[in-house]
């Protein structure tokens, strides 16, 4: 079967690029002497996670309890839920910990006390990471705050919890404008985390591991001294946002959306495809850069990884994508109803979460179909 | 069970508001003397569609072939797929037409020829609507163009297709700034469509029906003379976008997202919830208005339908929602980890498509759980 027979919109994974991305990141982790615990929130796919494990991943990272449940059921035995624990899930998490090693993340006394109580009541000793804010200012304790030290101390002293160490996410690396800036963000995350760990250790606390990670930082970092593990996720597919900020090139982007042209009026400078907001997502990509791509960009020649400079997805409604041409000669007599286009998305994680299946492709050949576990509890 | 026991993020439907919205729109259609064929792309839910049919809907409208398949399997016998037919689905559509009446939409010779051919080969006579651009400039033929008349003529003359009439979507009504402007947009759609139908009829063509619709237009239109049916969808839930453009009030919004506070650092002017982009969607709402809501807004008092003027969802990453307070005294000592908040979304259609289930609520009581058919072929 070829991609030309697929129902559209279809989500295509170029398996050669995927495998190269997986191998490269595992190589980088090995070279830096850190464990790789890939974040599967990007792909939500058992086959890809199995591949990551075969290549040497230490375990996986998930973003939701649903993902933890699904991957535990598929046999994954070491899972970090890298999201500040919503207390409403504490009891369920303790139950799931009997089937797999489920490592939780907290950044508050409330969440810690909640887990302590469960430990006391049912004897379930959960692994717990302390989330640290290394400058992104989303979640995590300020490493200079009294709360940070108090939580390190109480996690160390807890008889009901196993303290795994400190964990961060350098989400601010997405503010970079080039590879050099990513390297600066990556080094900031590394140094903030290692300094905090050393300070805690020098005052007598144990900090078993230091876990950091984002795809930009892990794609560009120059060394990771003092770090135990990294948790990038997006690198399996990359996307146009990663291209723009300097993490990768277009030829590293493994995920594309195949769409049908469904409307193209005579003389119009636009046509409509069936890849709308529920295919590409409404992520507009990096707003701090001169973003010339609108909501997605059409390949001129996929085999050569060449994007069309004049043909962009301008607006997305639920199921319609309006593709506009800045140069009208580019679409004259082309893109007839029934033709297909291949679109590079801004944000592969959100795009993947709109679909139920990946079509795995080599060239135009469809070699497999893999399930995307995008459900919710 | 109450909402306080639900896993978060949870999608809540206030059933009293839902029922009032359904009844009001059916009443409006009855009063205007038009059929109501609600667009189920908003809710994707058998229970709600059944309720719409019981109240008097003539059939349903869907946005994807998957929805057509699912609702046909559930016994819906009259379905319009109000999306320009992607030719790759033509054969499947003809097959499905043997189980249900599936009405298709085209706006090109290519799509018409494709259906003609299927009609000739297997004798399946499909119902076909001609999509007309009434000024929105997305899909549809220009009613003043030679192509428009040519397609009306050839659909009339076709022995293989059944011409249902002309169909439009007044998506530009979303550009309105108040109810009066919506009424102008609605009247423009109505008059463009009726004039086109009359012109075609006066030149000897049959135009059996005229179908129009959008939730803003159908919430505000003053009369619908010459129109046969309307296809609003969003009105079942409404949302903050509809409030802003003047379709409804906050008390008409039936869909909310219940989220847990998962991180709140001492002294911070923000907290984090577990309703991120994969709960609320990245729809930023109307950009042409002074949009004071960022990516979502927290209720101060849901029972009184009062939104918190100072507490907005500022940014969304995949599973994190960053909620920021413009007035720091509003969150001091409140919104602790484990508390829940109820959030009004910008775009209920895209929010619903992020979830697998609706929790049906009356006050804080959860009375039912309905499946959302959000899959893809």
Can you describe what's shown?
The structure is a homodimer of 377-residue chains. Chain A has 377 residues and is α/β, with parallel strands linked by helices. Chain A has two domains: 3-10 and 249-371, Lyase, Ornithine Decarboxylase, Chain A, domain 1; 15-234, Alanine racemase (TIM Barrel, Alpha-Beta Barrel). Chain A is 30% helix and 25% strand. In chain A, the strands form two sheets. Chain A has an eight-stranded parallel β-sheet. In chain A, strands 10-11-14-13-12-15 form a six-stranded antiparallel beta barrel. The longest helix of chain A is centred in the middle third of the chain and has 24 residues, at 179-202. The first copy, chain A, is elongated and about 75 Å long. The relative contact order of chain A is 0.16.
List the helices and strands and how they pair.
The structure is a homodimer of 377-residue chains.
Chain A: E1 10-14, H1 15-32, E2 35-36, H2 46-54, E3 60-62, H3 65-73, E4 78-84, H4 90-96, E5 101-106, H5 109-122, E6 126-131, H6 146-157, E7 161-167, H7 179-202, E8 209-212, H8 215-220, E9 229-230, H9 240-245, E10 255-263, E11 270-273, H10 277-280, E12 297-301, E13 306-316, E14 321-325, E15 340-344, H11 348-352, E16 357-362, E17 365-371
Parallel strand pairs in A: 1-16, 2-9, 3-4, 4-5, 5-6, 6-7, 7-8, 8-9
Antiparallel strand pairs in A: 1-10, 10-11, 10-15, 11-14, 12-13, 12-15, 13-14, 16-17
């Amino acid at each position: 079967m070829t991609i030309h027979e697929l129902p559209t919109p279809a989500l295509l994974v170029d398996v050669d690029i995927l495998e190269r991305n997986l191998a490269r990141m595992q190589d980088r982790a090995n070279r830096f002497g850190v464990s790789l615990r890939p974040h599967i929130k990007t792909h939500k796919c058992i086959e890809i996670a199995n591949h990551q494990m075969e290549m040497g991943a230490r375990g996986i990272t998930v973003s939701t309890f649903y993902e933890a449940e699904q991957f535990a059921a598929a046999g994954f035995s070491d899972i970090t839920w890298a999201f500040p624990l919503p207390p409403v899930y504490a009891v369920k998490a303790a139950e799931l910990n009997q089937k797999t090693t489920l490592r939780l993340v907290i950044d508050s006394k409330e969440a810690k006390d909640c887990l302590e109580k469960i430990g006391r009541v049912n004897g379930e000793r959960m692994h717990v990471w302390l989330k640290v804010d290394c400058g992104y200012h989303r979640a995590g304790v300020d490493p200079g705050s009294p709360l940070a030290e108090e939580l390190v101390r109480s996690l160390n002293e807890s008889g009901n919890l196993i303290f795994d160490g400190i964990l961060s996410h350098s989400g601010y690396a997405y503010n970079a404008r080039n590879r050099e800036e990513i390297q600066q963000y990556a080094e900031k995350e590394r140094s903030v985390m290692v300094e905090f760990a050393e300070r805690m250790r020098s005052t007598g606390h144990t900090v078993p591991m230091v876990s950091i990670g984002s795809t930009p930082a892990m794609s560009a970092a120059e060394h990771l001294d003092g770090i135990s593990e990294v948790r990038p996720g997006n690198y399996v597919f990359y996307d146009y946002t990663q291209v723009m900020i300097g993490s990768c090139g277009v030829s590293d982007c493994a995920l594309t959306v195949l769409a049908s042209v469904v409307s193209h009026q005579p003389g119009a400078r636009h046509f409509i495809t069936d890849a709308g907001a529920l295919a590409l997502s409404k992520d507009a990509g990096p707003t701090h850069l001169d973003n010339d791509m609108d909501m997605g960009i059409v390949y001129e020649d996929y085999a050569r990884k060449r994007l069309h400079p004049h043909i962009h997805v301008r607006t997305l409604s639920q199921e319609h994508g309006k593709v506009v041409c800045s140069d009208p000669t580019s679409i004259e007599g082309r893109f007839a109803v029934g033709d297909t286009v291949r679109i590079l998305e801004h944000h592969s994680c959100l795009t993947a979460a709109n679909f139920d299946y990946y079509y795995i492709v080599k060239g135009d050949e469809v070699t497999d179909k893999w399930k995307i576990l995008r459900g919710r509890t």
